[in-house]
User: Fold this.
Amino acid sequence: MLRLLEKQFDPKKAAQLKKLSERLRKFSFPPGASRYYALELASCIEAGALLGALVVGSALLELYVRALVVSNASTVRQSAPLRKKNLESLLEEKKNLSFAGLIDNLVSVGLFEKDDGESAKTLYKNIRIPLLHGLARRFVRQHQEPFGDELSLLLGDKAISSSDLEKIIEDHALEYLEKLVGIIENNRF
Assistant:
């Protein structure tokens, strides 16, 4: 059972989430799965499912970057041109082609803004990796005061509570989602 955004969040936050969803629905995306992920992200946002939105949004960012590389293969890859289908398969199979490396290549050839590239790498490291790999403790620790983290080391590592995770997501998700959507918006096809 879904509640309206206005019943889940204060009016200002609900309005910001609605605007974010509307922006996403207006984007044009490259061929492939990016559009579907964007629509799923918009649906998560509209439902107030912020953890889901962060998970889907961070996956969308990675898909989008890979699609940008594939569609601009001749610019990004200076050696012999590859067919787009082959490059897409190569990107999926090669684990040593890191997200950060893809971003750096896009920035170096002018297909991605430098500041957005740094933000994308930070979101990937701090959002996508911990949330998609179920590393909730890592995600929560990133948001704790340094003293709190040191204290937990002294007292012994304890499991995080779901309310800790929920509070951090509710406090920071809108900021992260705004940044993620802004990165895609600024570096469109």
Summary: Confidence is low (pLDDT under 50) at residues 78-85. The chain has one domain: 5-186.
